[in-house]
Amino acid sequence: MKDLLMNSALFGVTLTLSTFLLGRVIHRKTNIFLFSPLLVSVTLCIVTLILIKIPYENYLVGGNWVGFFLTPSTVCLAVPLYEQFEKLKKNWYAILGGITCGVLSNLAFIFGMCMIFKIGHVEYVSMLPKSITTAIGLALADEFHGFVPITIMMIVLTGNLGNLFAPQLCRIFHITDPVAKGVATGTSSHALGTAKAIEMGDIEGAMSGLSIAVTGLLTVVFAPFFANLI
Q1: Per the CB 3.0–4.6 Å rule, which of 17, 98, 204, 205 could disulfide with 182?
Q2: Which residue has the higher pLDDT, 225 or 31?
Q3: Per-residue confidence (pLDDT) for residue 150, from 0 to 100
């Protein structure tokens, strides 16, 4: 049975989807934000693989089929943006300014923390792309000769934190404008944060989806300057 699971693409797909659906049920029943379907799914997948001692590489035989749909689902974010195009035209200067400030703040924060804790150059450049999509982030890490596993870990961690805490942070800092909420979420936590922004509202989801693309572009522009600071 174990050999069948280890070599079956169906296992990875089934485990991923079933744990996510279970996470949705738990979240709906408890209404506790820490029981995010995404976090529950990731946790249960890890625990399952450890308990039945199935290597991560074998899980990916099927898990990659789920990941395959990440790109087309990201492209689909253009649909809500098109629907909110008038809102974009009315607020384009504020949106662009907010995203630019977010990108620069993120890069400056990483630089500051690495200086304070005396983190080396390789680790530093590996963390610079933490708030952009995986494809662009890995390309930047490779260009800067960083350590790609650190980049992957930081991108996943950033996205999950944004998915978990975006609504709570907006309430704490009294951010009520839907455009501002969407821009803040997408700029700081890429696609996983955008998934939460879509739950927050149509405008939030559209602005967050736009922020993913612009944040990636601006990070490519500004990150080389920051990469040479340490």
Answers
A1: 204
A2: 225
A3: 92
68 vs 193: CA distance, rounded Å:
19
Confidence of residue 4 (pLDDT cuts 50, 70, 90): low
Percent of the chain exceeding pLDDT 90 equals 45
Place of tokens 């961690």: 157
Instruction: State how far the Cα of 102 lies from the Cα of 95, in Å rounded to an integer.
Output: 10
What are phi and psi for residue 53, nearest 5 degrees?
55, 50
Token readout for 82 is 């098109």
**Rounded Cα–Cα distance for residues 133 and 195 (Å):** 13
Rounded distance, CA 4 to CA 189, Å? 37
Residues 61, 12 contacting (CB under 8 angstroms): yes
Q: What residue has token string 């890995």?
A: 138
Q: Rounded CA gap, 143 and 86, in Å?
A: 38
- Amino acid 185 reads T
Instruction: List, in order, residues 6 or more apart from 169 with CB less than 8 Å away.
Output: 175
Nearest residue to 178 via CA among 167, 189, 162, 164: 167
Q: pLDDT of 40-69, one tens digit each?
A: 888 999 999 898 888 888 888 777 777 677
Angle between helices 37-51 and 148-172 (to 10 degrees): 140
| Token pair 């930081």: residue | 154
Structure-token pair, residue 170: 């907006």
Residue 199 CA to residue 186 CA, distance in Å, equals: 13
AA identity, residue 152: I
